[in-house]
Amino acid sequence: MDLLALNEPINQAVYGPGMMLVFILVGLYLSLRTGFIQFSRLGVALRETLGAIRERSLSFGGQITPFQAAMVALSATVGTGHLVGMVGAVLLGGPGAVLWMWVAYLVGMATKFAEAVLAVHFRRQYTDGSVMGGPMLYIRYGLGGRMAWLAALFAFFTAAAAFGIGNLAQAGAVGNALLQEFGVPPAITGLLLALLIGVLLGGGIRRVAWFAQLIVPIKLALFLLGALPLLVLHIGQVPAALALIFSSALSFQAAASGATGAAIAIGLTEILKAGVGRGIFANEAGLGSAAIAHAQAQVDHPVRQGFWGLTEMLVSLFVTTLTALTFIASGLWERFFGGDRVEAIRHLFAEHPLGVPLLALMLAVFALGTMASWGFYGEEGAAYLFGEGVRWPYRLTFVAFAFVGPLGGLATLTAVADTLNGLMAIPNLIALLALGGLVGRLVREFFQGLPWQPPQED
């Protein structure tokens, strides 16, 4: 049995309906523990984040501002999956998948909040000023030494998965886009990516954070430049698109019209898998990756950084929703249903005044930000396992993968890394369940005005 054949059943289980249900149940549990903070305290969260972008630095602090930490996380999260992946979800599950994507986001907000809170609460700061945090730390110190193996497992999955989801897949998307639209040879694209990623990772978290706070606004500006003209072009179909999202969410059949005049049969399982799956793996709530960035924040209370997790989710939700709504309103989902998602989104942008080249530029910028943040995530996982000395070897290996990504030919490695990315969720979700009571207590103490007491280092 070859590696791809061995990987396939594991991948199907990791991304299957059972795991989707676990993600939702954990999100609901954390929502209950925190008093549904994503709804009850949303105003507070927005005031603490977008309404007060300022530095908070204490002796037990991070290396970057809370805003920068959120930007590192958001830069990793808002990638090509928010464009091509969201279109793919509609092509797989029909318009009804969007409603279930919203459900995944709404419960996932509590999950992302809890991850950020625990990341700050259990992080470790060293004598040189560096900080390490994330699921490997809150598993190790929150669950105790007997669960150190679970923390190591998460760190391994992260370090290995970063080469796929955060590197090869992103670099390949950039290479294909620039080759098709601008004729840039893949080797040139790979060389430029390798140089950029090498410079960014070589400066550590501070340089990655500087880049993230620059690239995320550019990502959002490009997205609005791409999406809004298309939405205006199909504005008359938006009410019908919204109605179709709700009417087909629980239906076993999504009525098609227009060019096909037929009915597209979609099993409810496929609708749920497409919607919930896209929601989870677009916002990364439950995977634990964003917690590695949030742990670096200079903040005086873990709950304050948790608010940034909520805001991060809202931005991600806005991008995925606008992408899906525009695509459904265009009617192209019927024409390409069950077909190629890249071809479908290319046809969508063919209607844009700036054409498909704008899409290529968007994909390149989205992917570049994701690569920088995931390079840091993977490096942190490797450093947890093997110590500080592994950082430069890991960085150089990551840069080498960035070069070969646009050249293609590593499909097996990419597929395995995709599975490892999904496996990251298992140790993280176990820890979130075990530490949900602690998150609830920290929330109560924050709103009671009680000071935060970091746990004693062992």
Describe this structure in words.
The structure is a single chain. This protein has 458 residues and is an all-alpha fold. 72% of the residues lie in helices and 2% in strands. It has a single domain (17-53, 61-447), classed as Up-down Bundle (Amino acid/polyamine transporter I). It has a two-stranded antiparallel ribbon. Strands 3-4 form a two-stranded antiparallel ribbon. β3 and β4 form a beta hairpin. α2 (17-33) packs across α14. The model is unreliable at 253-263 (pLDDT under 50).
Topology:
Elements: H1 3-14, H2 17-33, H3 37-40, H4 42-48, H5 66-77, H6 84-93, H7 96-121, E1 124-125, E2 131-132, H8 135-143, H9 148-161, H10 164-182, H11 186-202, H12 204-233, H13 238-247, E3 253-255, E4 263-265, H14 268-283, H15 289-294, H16 302-330, H17 332-335, H18 341-349, H19 356-386, H20 391-404, H21 411-423, H22 425-447
Antiparallel strand pairs: 1-2, 3-4
Helix pairs in contact: 1-21, 2-7, 2-14, 2-22, 4-16, 5-12, 5-16, 5-19, 6-14, 6-18, 7-13, 7-14, 7-16, 7-22, 8-9, 8-22, 9-19, 9-21, 9-22, 10-11, 10-19, 10-21, 11-19, 11-20, 12-16, 12-19, 13-16, 19-20
Largest sheet: 2 strands, antiparallel
Radius of gyration: 21 Å
Strand/helix succession: HHHHHHHEEHHHHHHEEHHHHHHHHH
Low-confidence stretches: 253-263
Terminus-to-terminus distance: 45 Å
Number of helices: 22
Using the coordinates above, name the CATH class.
Mainly Alpha
Mean of all residue-level pLDDT scores: 88
What tags apply to this protein structure?
4 strands; 22 helices; Amino acid/polyamine transporter I; globular; 458 residues; two-stranded antiparallel ribbon; mainly alpha
